[in-house]
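Students often ask why we bother encoding 3D structure as a string. The short answer is that it lets us treat folding as translation between two languages. Here is a chain of 532 residues written in the first language.
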Amino acid sequence: MSQAFLKQLASSQNSLAVGGELAQPERSDVYPVGRGKVSPRSVASRKSAVGSAGQPRDSRDGHASGLFDRWHLLSPGEPMVLGRDPRCAIVIDAEQYPVVSREHAVVRALPAMATNLTEQLEPPGSDGGQGSTLLVEQVGLSPAGFERTGRGQKSGAIAGPMRWQLCDLGSANGTYVNGQRLWGCQLLEVGDRLQLGQSGPTFSFEYQVSSTPASPDSAGSESGQPVTISQLFPLISTGSDLTQKAYLIPGIVTVAVVVSLFLTVGQPQWFNGLLASYLSFGAYYFVYRLCGKAKPWWLPLLTAGLTVALLSTPLLNLSMWLFRDILPGAIPTVDEQLPIPLLFTRMLVGAGLMEELLKVLPLAILAGLARYLEHPWRDRLGIWEPLDGILLGAASAVGFTLLETLGQYVPYMTQMSLGSDVDAGQLAGLQLLIPRLLGSVAGHIAYSGYFGYFIGLSVMVPQRRWLILGVGYGTASLLHALWNVMGSYSAFLLAAVGILSYACLVAAILKARSLSPHRAKNFATQFSEHRN
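And here it is in the second language, the structure alphabet:
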């Protein structure tokens, strides 16, 4: 039975010289690795497959990591993709090897071919060189099972039951075989050195032939792959992956909120407050994952709390006097019928311009404070790029939405329904609370996050600061006003405005990620980019 391996050369990441005798791994130390199949030892943590050079990380089942952290068994049925994308079979550490693309290269098996296939495909007069190889490719067959006999030539001798091919997947920094850059695909020979980029990790292609082929019936019991404790109890072997990849913290928060909701049944204020906080911060977490820039957990809480605190001061009444009494922004009553142009003007001034300005004040406070702080507090609190503005703007919108919903709309709806039944009033308030907070990602969070993008952009392009801020403030206020106006006329138009607002937000996020000076560390791009 023949087996092919990729061996990571941890001690020679910058060297392509062949030297030394290669020790063969024990069968119990090598496991198949491929898309959807992760070995319990060789890739116990997939990022540990290619970690620090010369320092293989320990496995999670108590065994030494010297061999199986660096050996990867190739499976004929599954191509092995190498890259920084977490879906790859061998995941490369993005921080240690920034030259590696998301999906950099792939090693795949080619089926064996008949020994006389060369003679059948060669045109008259062909010498078996490059022309015959091109002809093989044109008819859709790969030149598997042929050994190199010279530069650009193939012979009819089958070297083994399976040949392996390395293909570059359009990587930005190239794939190298024995020091030569690979263009397209190339058959691998035993001892070939594969390097991802000129300064990336290096692998050696190795082949092992066993004299006792394993039968299908004995694959599970006699293959030398015993069931380990970590396989039977996955919880003890996942380690930090639980929090980093499995959303453990959001899961814990969800369970805690559910239990708390059970405990507060019959207490409407506590129940509504818990549910509102969970829904609103859940919407924020969605935006946070889209942005992909790490922020401390307390920063959105601080920003939202600062917004609530500011709106609890006379500043709110002062703003209402300015925008709604002095300026033409008086909010119409329920029974008041206004033509669309007048209604839009009032909503633009009295809701859009006023509320978007109020929500951005905490961002100005934090950004101003950060300028007087030292690193790392300066970086954490400040707004230095569009992603910072989006995240802080969305957090401020969470605070505004919670205060507006719980302090104004829900009490008003409950009071309006109390004339018929207390329970009916509480139900009406809850029915208003849920859609308002679920829709905040296309409402207040969308407006403020979009405005925050322009605030961060103005920091990166200070010479155009006021133009950028003006466009952002006006656009966010315009979307806000459109939502308020369409709600009075058509549910279809209201949905259209919500979709437009959400599209503006995610478009700003995508653009902010591409502009970010820390794009290489952005965790969202690992799931959204196919390759560099």
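Translate back mentally: Residues 11-69, 113-160, 211-223, 527-532 have pLDDT under 50 and may be disordered. Keep this in mind for the problem set.
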